[in-house]
Structure formats: structure tokens, C-alpha cells
Amino acid sequence: MKTIRIMSAVAAMSAVLAAGAADAQVRVKARGSNGTVTATKNAAGGAAVRGRGRVQNDDGSTTVASGGARRTAQGGRAARAGTATYDEATGAYSAQRGAAVQTATGATANRQSSTSGTRGEGWNRSGSASASGERGSAATSSDFSRNADGSWSGGSETSVTGNASGNTYNGATTIDPDTGKPVHSHSCSNANGEPVACPTR
What we know:
This protein is mainly beta. It contains 1 helix and 13 strands, in the order αβββββββββββββ. The protein has one helix at 2-19, and strands at residues 26-32, 35-41, 47-56, 62-71, 77-86, 92-102, 108-118, 122-132, 136-147, 152-162, 168-175, 182-189, 195-196. Strands 1-2-3-4-5-6-7-8-9-10-11-12-13 form a 13-stranded antiparallel sheet, with helices on one face. A hairpin with a 4-residue loop joins β9 and β10. It is flat.
């Protein structure tokens, strides 16, 4: 609950800054029992806010959360947030992170990831990212695990499309269960979905 409160404070202060006068210069910092929040706004119209908190959970684990947002004077925007929880007694841990960006010209990008595991027993990490702009778009996702015996499993997929040509690149990586090594494959297609040769570079 405390973590939620500090992240709510970040969002609230972001709204206050966005509503302020364009020629104002402001810096605000608040500190509580479980973290801090800092917000700034410059005379040019740019603004930023960030917060960080730490809380001891009822089960003995510890959670750390942080986040921030920024707006440029030209209209670009960016935001990030993340949490991580670790239990010293059991060795269990988990983390989630995310970020998003939008430029003043309208290009966008975002990413998110999640990691979990237990000390000495392996871990799993999954995530995705995407971007879109004037020249094209791209997206990727992955899900990999490292097992307690040291072996790997999982895979990833990537897709890239160029706006000018309409061609799309699709790539995939999997872990060979026999060798434990990554295996790559890819293909390309045109705007009609017909196979075409992939560029070498």
C-alpha cells in the first residue's frame, strides 16, 4: 500500500506540473517514511518528476519501487516505472519494469519486462518492446528461462516493417534442447505477404 501511495504521488505531481503556467520555474521535493518524490519544471515548458520508495512487506520480503516522467518543451514525453521484490529468507525475487517514449514528431517506443526466480533454482525473464515512426515499425518479444541445472529454454521473435517498401522481416530465436545453444531463423515478405529475399545488411 505504501508503494502505491508514493507512485500515486508521482502521478499527482505530474498533473500539477502539466497544469502550471508555461513561464513558471518550479522545483518541489517531498519525503516520506518510505520514499521521496521530486518534481521540476523549467521556464521553457519542460517538466520532470521522479519518485522512489522502499517498503518491508508482511511476509518479510522487501519491495523497492521507482518511477518517473518527463516532458520536453518541444512536446516529447517519456515515462518509466519499475518494482522489485526480494525475500532474503527464501531467496525468491521478482521484478517488473516498463518505459514509454513519444517524440515531438509522433514517433513512439515502449518496452516492458518481468523477471522472477529463486536463488539456486533458476529464473525466468520475459519482455517485449516496440517502436513506430516515420520510417517504419518494429516489435520484439522474448521469454527465456535458466533452469537449476544450468540449462536454458525459451525463445524470441522480432518483426520489422519498412514504410517505404512495405517489406517485413520476421526473425526467431529458439534454444536447441539437445545442445542448449540458440538457433536463429528468419524470413522476409513484401506488402502482399509474398516471400522476398532478405537484405544482407
